TrEMBL record, chain A:
This is Nitrile hydratase subunit beta. Transmembrane segments: none annotated. Belongs to the nitrile hydratase subunit beta family. NHase catalyzes the hydration of various nitrile compounds to the corresponding amides. It comes from Tistrella mobilis (strain KA081020-065). It comes from the Bacteria. It catalyses: an aliphatic primary amide = an aliphatic nitrile + H2O.
TrEMBL record, chain B:
Pfam families: NHase_alpha. Its EC number is 4.2.1.84. It comes from Tistrella mobilis (strain KA081020-065). SUPFAM superfamilies: Nitrile hydratase alpha chain (SSF56209). It is an enzyme of class 4 (lyase). Keywords: Iron, Lyase, Metal-binding. Residues 1-22 have a biased composition (Basic and acidic residues). This is nitrile hydratase. Residues 1-32 are annotated as: Disordered. Fe(3+) binds at residues 123, 126-128. Belongs to the nitrile hydratase subunit alpha family. It catalyses: an aliphatic primary amide = an aliphatic nitrile + H2O. Residues 32-213 form the Nitrile hydratase alpha/Thiocyanate hydrolase gamma domain.
Length: 224, 224
């Protein structure tokens, strides 16, 4: 989606706000926002890709003027309503509404603390080794990024679309975010680090010795 | 830090604001604090989360997982050539030797900085970051100024961090657009030849492992 999340190459945001001795959380509510978002995610009702799309489909003025954890919470509320875990009215009160639809029948029990620790330590790799079709490209191949414009989720940033780069390395087969976010299965396929000369992205003002790598899936690419 | 935020019944009812350790009287709860409180209360009441699991998640990222993990990996790589070779060929497995596994570190790649190459990492599309070795990302890493400019003007961004890279050095930017997570292996500073692993780990900074600073630029005072 060509949303406000796709920031690469935009201008005018000003200097980087470097903070000395930055705390992990700037307010107690940020810690709770992180924890609630992760813990409800543990129920497995949506993928990380669907969660990302919930955030990136916020209207650009909202996205750009919200703090990071505020974006997370707005995304979480959307997902909870979509998946029948809460109603908008319940967010106002913080109390379950007896008139709200019942929770999904196949909902897993909430993990307790030891289970949550195990989930964090295990992670959830998106690698699906051997799950994809054979890689179409090899290291050194020249590729062009397809000009993907969709309201749905994609991880091909605007600044590389239509640009030619070189396959740097094959990472292996990974879940295709576009498919997972749209609940079309995982469609695992080869994912590559693609190297772009900075001048091929930004023109002559770029430094001749610079390059940018993006990790891109097979479906995003065509031979150049 | 770990011990002062776990009285679940009332502790996080208070939002202390951005300047806030201990100014509970200063301001009413922010709208976001109230919003999180409502979502958390609702999720607990509906059985979607276990409060103990929420506390465990906060404690994990506030006091257990952070850049000291990555610093230990770097110090080992500097002192043990066989480990460095494993780290560069299969970063996930080499990092798992320390027990650093799990969420947002499932599939790791390590990038080695040299006299000729300076690597730096960004996520232009969201905030992808190697949690297992660096903890949660700083605000600037998630912010529009960094995400927009790291790919467009990496040398300008580096200069803001006090890192001036020569024209003869290749700057390689890595945009974490997929589920690979990148850790930069900074160059070992001169004058540390007889230091042991623990001494070395103590001077490795978070920012050097994101690739926005070089340890060689630091004065001895900054290192201590």
């Amino acid at each position: 989606m060509n949303g406000a999340q796709d920031l690469g190459g935009m201008m005018g945001f000003g200097p980087i706000g470097i903070e000395v001795n930055e705390p992990v959380f700037h307010a107690p509510w940020e810690a709770r926002a992180l924890a609630v978002t992760l813990a409800i995610g543990f129920l497995g009702r949506w993928s990380i890709d669907e969660a990302r799309h919930a955030r990136e489909s916020l209207p650009p003025p909202v996205y750009l003027t919200s703090s990071y954890y505020e974006i997370w919470l707005r995304g979480l509320e959307k997902l909870m309503v979509r998946h029948g875990l809460a109603t908008v009215a319940e967010f106002e009160t913080g109390v379950p509404d007896p008139a709200a639809p019942a929770l999904p029948a196949d909902l897993k029990p909430a993990p307790d603390a030891p289970q949550a620790a195990a989930i964090l330590a295990r992670g959830a790799s998106a690698r699906r080794e051997g799950g994809g079709h054979p890689a179409r490209f090899r290291a050194g191949d020249r590729v062009k990024v397809r000009d993907i414009n969709t309201l749905a989720h994609t991880r091909a940033p605007r600044y590389v679309r239509g640009r030619v780069g070189t396959i740097e390395r094959l990472h292996g087969d990974f879940v295709l975010p576009d498919a997972a976010a749209a609940r079309r299965g995982e469609d695992p396929q080869p994912c590559y680090a693609v190297r772009f000369a900075a001048r091929d992205l930004w023109g002559e003002t770029a430094h001749p010795n610079d390059c940018v790598h993006a990790d891109l899936w097979d479906d995003y690419l065509e031979p150049a | 830090m770990a011990g002062d935020h776990h009285d679940h019944a009332h502790d996080h009812d208070h939002d202390h604001g951005h300047d806030g350790q201990g100014h509970a009287h200063a301001a009413p709860p922010s709208p976001m604090a109230a919003r999180v409180k409502a979502i958390e209360a609702l999720a607990v009441a509906k059985g979607l989360v276990d409060p103990a699991a929420l506390d465990l998640i906060v404690d994990t990222y506030e006091s257990k997982v952070g850049p000291r993990n990555g610093a230990r990996v770097v110090a080992r790589a500097w002192t043990d050539p066989a480990y460095k070779a494993r780290l560069l060929s299969d970063a996930t497995a080499a990092i798992a030797e320390f027990g650093f596994t799990g969420r947002q570190g499932e599939d790791m790649v390590v990038l080695e900085n040299t006299d000729q190459v300076h690597n730096m990492v960004v996520c232009t599309l969201c905030s992808c970051y190697p949690w297992t070795v660096l903890g949660l990302p700083p605000v600037w890493y998630k912010s529009a100024p960094y995400r927009s400019r790291a790919v467009l003007d990496p040398r300008g961004v580096l200069a803001e961090f006090g890192c001036r890279v020569g024209d003869d050095v290749e700057v390689r930017v890595w945009d974490s657009t997929a589920e690979l997570r990148y850790l930069v292996l900074p160059q070992r500073p001169a004058g540390t030849e007889d230091w042991d692993e623990d001494q070395l780990a103590a001077i490795v900074t978070r920012d050097s492992m994101i690739g926005v600073t070089r340890l060689a630029d630091q004065t001895p005072e900054m290192r201590s």
